Amino acid sequence: MISVSHLTRTFGSLRALDDISFEVAKGEVVGFLGPNGAGKTTAMRVLTGYLPASAGTVRVAGFDVLRESLEVRRRIGYLPESVPLYREHRVVEMLEFQARLHAIPRKERARRIDEVLEQVGLTDRRRSLVGDLSRGLRQRAGLAVALLPQPEVLILDEPTSGLDPMQRLEVRGLIQDLRSRHTVLLSSHILPEIEAVCPRVIIVHKGRIAADGTPAELVAKLAGASHVRLEAVVGADVAAAARMLRSIAGVRDVVDRGRVGIHHQFELTCDEDLREDVGAIAAARGWALRELSWHRPTLEQIFTRIATGASDEFAPMSKPIANTPATSAANLGGTIALGGIALHVAQPSTPSMPSMPAGKSTPSTPTVPSKPARVVYNLNPFDRGATRSLSTPKAVEDPTAPSANDPGAGSSGVGDR
Amino acid sequence: MRGVLAITRRELAGLFVGPLAWALLFIAVLLQGWLFVLYLKTSGGDVDLALRWTLGESWVFWALLILVPPLLTMRMISEESRTGILEFLLTAPVSDAAVVTGKFVAAVTFLALLWSTAFLYGLAVASLGVAPDWGALFGGWLGAVLCSALFCAVGLCASAVTSTPIVAAFGAIVVNLVFVTAPLLSELSDQLWVRRAVARVDVIDHHKAAFLNGVLDTSYGVFFAAWTAFFVFLAVRAVEARRWR
Asked: What value of ipTM does the predicted structure carry?
């Protein structure tokens, strides 16, 4: 759908794009990632035909961007970063203008306009002046304008810049909806953004392509392995503890990071999430835990390394992954975390059970696995007998789990009435 | 030239939702009406002479022509390049020439509307019993529109070259002044080539000699068309050049 080969663009002596080549297949969603001034916008402008390339060829939908510019423009929906819309016009007028520019037949016009307004959720603001819309709504209006002619290729330059987190989520959702119908190329300098939306990422740095692949691939290729961090009181024989951790299948290396207060910190290099196993060992040995977390290199770190041209040595992470549920040490007190969440899920649906005993002093109510457990670990060193199977799904996601052990259950919500 | 109509419609709509167009119309019509009454008085009731003054014989007409088109066109390209809308237009499936032409047609349409107020005066005096020379009136109007077209093209060209509307307006006014004051040059010199050169740019004379008398002479039409096309062409080139910067 998009084919770029040896694209170079210079502004005077500045090489904004330096010999860039890539292909985007039909239906792909590709994220352009790079710091400000990396050449993302320039690349997009060349793709849309706004800027001519200094060297190299760009083809969109089989048409040369320079020679068959109008054919290309007919097939591209482009939303520049500044969201250029006439502020003095109403949303629907702007869409009508776009329809006329694209020569959409009069009969289809009204229907298409209704469709895209519905699609971006602006139906109730169709009569609003563009200048009166908030930044987020204007972004949606811009998207509606770009979508109106049903372009094969959608090029979005920083579609989420300048938006607050809620609006950003909305726009992200919109883009996710578009995936099936269009080939999408979008740019951003915000990593989670791109990670969430794009199955493929092209990292641009100083006008060159620094990396190209899925986020997972990039993480694996560029940043090395993930690691589990353990902070626990392991007793006097630290070396023995390290040896024991090293013996877990899948652990490639154990680094002793020294004492932190009474706790000792280890970093276990591994390819997957080994918290369960480490936790089990800790429980079995009776180590008092302070932290048990899994750290995966994020695109951000890879990106920082590329951008700053840091050494190849893999720097350990400092930030745990936020979107993995029930990470860190909370896993150990599994029943407590479980209770807190299960309460929210279960209570509204069970108003008829107000007098359920809020067994404040029975912290050990287990999440009983329905299937026979394959491997059973004791998860809580202070509470012998609490067991959980590793083969069952994450207990936190089980809405039927008992909530009786939550200390707040008796005093909150419907429970009292 | 697909898309010219779409651009023109958008441009006119944009003009009339903003205050600038209305302000210009208001000032021009007020001034013209007031002056028309004055002309009628000073000419001793000669309707044709008064209309002649309104549409080209007086310096007020030329002053309006020097000032209004640049004010109208100054924002058309320069401001859009600044707000980024030009990027939208130049990636829409219409050619650069269509974008510039659409804007040009919109500006000329607006000025044609402005000058057509002269017909109102014609109707007014006709209803009072003195029929004006309709042919001369129409010729004068057409000449005024052609002059406006030329000055709009100059204004668009200036707007395409800079990114600041005020600079564009100033540049266009200077060029317009050169056009209008060129005849004064020939009074400074007796040289034949100076006179010939001046005749090539003498807008006032071309307007007065033919159109104002109700004569539709194609050679005079070509004079305006050629100069207008030249400046529109320059404007298109200037817009294209923006891509290379």
From this structure: 0.89
